[in-house]
Amino acid sequence: MDCSICQQTGAFYFREYEGIAFCHQCFKKNFENRVHRTISRYHMLDHDHHIAVALSGGKDSITLLRILRKIEKRFPKSRITAVTVDEGIEGYRDEAINIAEDQCSELGIDHKIISFKQIYGHTLDDLVSKKKLSFPCSYCGVLRRKAINLIAREIEADKIATAHNMDDEIQTYMLNVFHGDVLRISRSEPSLEDPSGMFLPRVKPLAESPEKEVVLYAYSTGIRFQTVPCPYATTALRNDIRIMLNRLEARHGGTKFTIYRSVERLRDLLKRSKSPFTLQRCRSCGEPTPSEVCEACRLLQEIDA
């Protein structure tokens, strides 16, 4: 099959939802251009920003780091620092941290690591074994977000960039629906800022890139990344939603993009119809929260009870 872009033989990927075949080089360029368009569309970055990139060591975060590094080279006043959270998962996180450190060393990027043990006094393994958590992913996600906020403020970053891809965004939408928390959809956009300045803005440059294409980009560019899944991932409802959506996409190409665009329209309606989202300081830790106690502190209080 010939590449639809350069017409050369040797296309390796056919994008069904657009009917376009790509060779390796044209795919990589097209993928990077899509990320650039997402950044521009949502006004995610400025030429002088200090960006804290949440780096887990997986395909998504390393892909994001490398693309942002390319962009950053064109803007001398900008700066990137990679931040990694060590949850304390034996046999899993150590490999990821080593990969993250190697990538940062290769790219010449500062790398900061923070751990659950440092902040909360427990590793995730401790919490699972001692407290018999049925759904560790629910706790891990909340505690990890808080950890990233803390280290990003410590390094005086202007924004936090996370590597959530389009599949992640759709899965989050479905989780909010299944949990009956529809209003949260209005706060799950690709670029989220707080006019009051209580929390650091978050951006998701891969939000319009399907997970499948993130994987293809990583392999096409020879990126080394962790391939072993988290041992707790199978316990999460998100995993079941991922399987369901992948089956739908396999049978009905373009389903994920249709859902993503529908979520965008629904988000706009929710933002216009609901009262403004207000934050206050957590009475326990001082972090911004819509409640008296932030979600992380509430979960920790439940664990220690």
The CATH class assignment is Alpha Beta
Largest sheet: 6 strands, mixed
Shape: globular
Give the neighbour order of strands across the main sheet. Answer: 5-4-3-6-8-7
Say what the CATH topology is.
Answer: Rossmann fold
* Rounded mean pLDDT score: 90
Explain what the structure shows.
This protein is an alpha/beta fold and 305 residues long. The chain has one domain (25-304): Rossmann fold (3-Layer(aba) Sandwich). It is built from 11 helices and 10 strands. It is globular. The mean pLDDT is 90.
Give a topology summary.
Blueprint: E1 13-15, E2 20-22, H1 24-41, E3 50-54, H2 59-72, E4 79-86, H3 93-107, E5 110-115, H4 116-120, H5 124-131, H6 136-154, E6 159-161, H7 166-178, E7 191-192, E8 202-203, H8 211-220, H9 237-251, H10 255-273, E9 280-281, E10 288-289, H11 295-304
Parallel strand pairs: 3-4, 3-6, 4-5, 6-8
Antiparallel strand pairs: 1-2, 7-8, 9-10
